[in-house]
């Protein structure tokens, strides 16, 4: 038998090849209830994952044995009955530990990524294995896969078009004038999943956070392909300039919303970047938008997957800043109504209602607040994993520990990604209606991000003084006449909702 995990749902997991199943190999899928008991997941995420698994099983028909069990181990024992089982490389350390302890299970190479893990390890070892710059890796992938290349040179002579992709949102508009993102239609399988989740909650078996309205993200290969086509044809052209911008009433803007489809295995990254490059070469989208999209998939997504395995399980315990504060209940419960700061309230409500926000709210609103408050990076990582529809351990561990919380001390990134309210004000329409003022550090209207930024630098000035990316603002601390007031104000604020 060949075992398909719930994030290995696309056709590229069944094509012949190294350790791949033959065309007639019986297939196995296991729905393990214990997954939802261990963590308090977002309800919309639980619905999406189970819907995708059950839709895939319905497509595969009699070829697949679909087992609903308490644990993976029980499901495997019930279905395999001692027969040998093959499986593609799982996507988490925990899953890999499990399959390695199961008798008769053979693990093959990973699928769903562009670079074989051995090739990355060789590349990383060649760079000393320490400061592995994503930009260097991205260029290596571009060359190796002939992505946006003109011979040996990058298209139009530039590797990185980030400078063209940092525009604030258009002023005086509530949303971008772009085609709407693809939205799937629910069916009987979605209804069955929602009925089961309701029953599990009523029985006290599991507990969720967030809201589960009509499904917003693809659960089948056909839906994912429609979403990709809609993005490339109607949204890709305007993606680049505003990819770092935020609008309160338009959380999707021109973003692709394909991350959950990629991470469920419904789409292959190669088809996504190839489709985007074809749009540029056919004159349907500008290079800066296409390069920005390719960078997200062939650059950052691929990089995060690779360093997750290269750094190993000890990376999870990284805590260079020694942050240990627990997550407050209002944050864990997605209680947006408890928050007064408009940016944080808006973004937390988006997570509560959909299980998704794009990368800048994640990094510069949610992650920045957690970093400034000194919350335990492992708890923050777990929260992102549970509360986002595209959240998986391999995704969130490097993104949160390495980038968002700077817990590895700079192993992945060159500086902590946090800022005062001026950044949010420049890149969004979120500050205008807020009770706080982005320019105020202290006093009744002190912005929690502005005050939090200076308090964070003050707490860690000894560590950060030698970092050339933030040395200048650290030196400015001694010129802040109100720094003692800011310190006392932020100590008193603690973890109360800002």
From TrEMBL:
Gene3D superfamilies: 1.25.40.80, Deoxyribodipyrimidine photolyase-related, DNA Cyclobutane Dipyrimidine Photolyase, subunit A, domain 3, HUPs. SUPFAM superfamilies: Cryptochrome/photolyase FAD-binding domain. InterPro entries: Crypto/Photolyase_FAD-like_sf, PhrB-like, Rossmann-like_a/b/a_fold, UV-DNA_repair_photolyase. PANTHER family: SLR1343 PROTEIN (PTHR38657). This is Cryptochrome/photolyase family protein.
């Amino acid at each position: 038998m060949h075992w398909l995990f719930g994030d290995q749902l696309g056709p590229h997991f069944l094509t012949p090849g190294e350790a791949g199943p033959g065309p007639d190999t019986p297939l196995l899928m296991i729905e393990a209830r214990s997954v939802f008991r261990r963590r308090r997941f977002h309800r919309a995420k639980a619905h999406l994952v189970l819907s995708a698994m059950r839709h895939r099983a319905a497509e595969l028909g009699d070829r697949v044995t679909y087992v609903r069990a308490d644990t993976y181990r029980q499901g495997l024992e019930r279905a395999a009955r001692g027969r040998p089982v093959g499986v593609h490389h799982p996507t988490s350390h925990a899953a890999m530990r499990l399959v390695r302890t199961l008798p008769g299970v053979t693990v093959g190479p990973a699928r769903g990524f562009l670079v074989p893990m051995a090739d990355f390890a060789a590349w990383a070892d060649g760079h000393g294995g320490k400061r592995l710059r994503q930009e260097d890796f991205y260029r290596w992938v571009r060359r190796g896969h002939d992505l946006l290349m003109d011979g040996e040179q990058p298209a139009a002579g530039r590797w990185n078009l980030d400078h063209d992709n940092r525009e604030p949102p258009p002023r005086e508009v509530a949303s971008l004038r772009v085609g709407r993102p693809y939205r799937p239609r629910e069916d009987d399988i979605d209804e069955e999943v929602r009925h089961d989740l309701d029953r599990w909650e009523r029985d006290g078996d599991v507990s969720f956070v967030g809201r589960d309205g009509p499904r917003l993200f693809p659960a089948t290969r056909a839906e994912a392909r429609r979403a990709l086509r809609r993005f490339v044809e109607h949204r890709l052209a305007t993606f680049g300039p505003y990819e770092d911008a935020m609008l309160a009433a338009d959380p999707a803007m021109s973003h692709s919303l394909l991350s959950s489809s990629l991470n469920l295995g419904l789409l292959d990254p190669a088809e996504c970047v190839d489709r985007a490059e074809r749009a540029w070469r056919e004159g349907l989208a500008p290079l800066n938008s296409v390069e920005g999209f390719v960078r997200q998939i062939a650059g950052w997504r691929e990089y995060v997957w690779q360093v997750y395995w290269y750094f190993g399980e000890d990376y999870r315990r990284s805590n260079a800043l020694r942050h240990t504060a627990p997550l407050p209940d209002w944050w864990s419960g997605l209680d947006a109504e408890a928050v007064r700061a408009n940016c944080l309230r808006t973004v937390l409500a988006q997570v509560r209602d959909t299980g998704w926000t794009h990368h800048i709210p994640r990094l510069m609103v949610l992650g920045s607040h957690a970093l400034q408050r000194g919350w335990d990076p492992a708890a923050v990582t777990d929260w992102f994993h549970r509360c986002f529809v595209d959240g998986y351990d391999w995704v969130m561990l490097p993104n949160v520990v390495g980038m968002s919380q700077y817990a590895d001390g700079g192993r992945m990134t060159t500086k902590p990604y946090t800022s005062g309210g001026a950044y949010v004000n420049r890149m969004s329409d979120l500050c205008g209606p807020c009770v706080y003022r982005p320019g105020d550090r202290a006093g009744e209207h002190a912005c929690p991000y502005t005050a939090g930024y200076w308090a964070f630098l003050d707490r860690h000035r000894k560590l950060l003084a030698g970092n050339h990316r933030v040395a200048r603002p650290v030196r400015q601390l001694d010129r802040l006449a109100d720094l003692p007031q800011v310190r006392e104000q932020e100590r008193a604020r603690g973890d109360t909702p800002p």
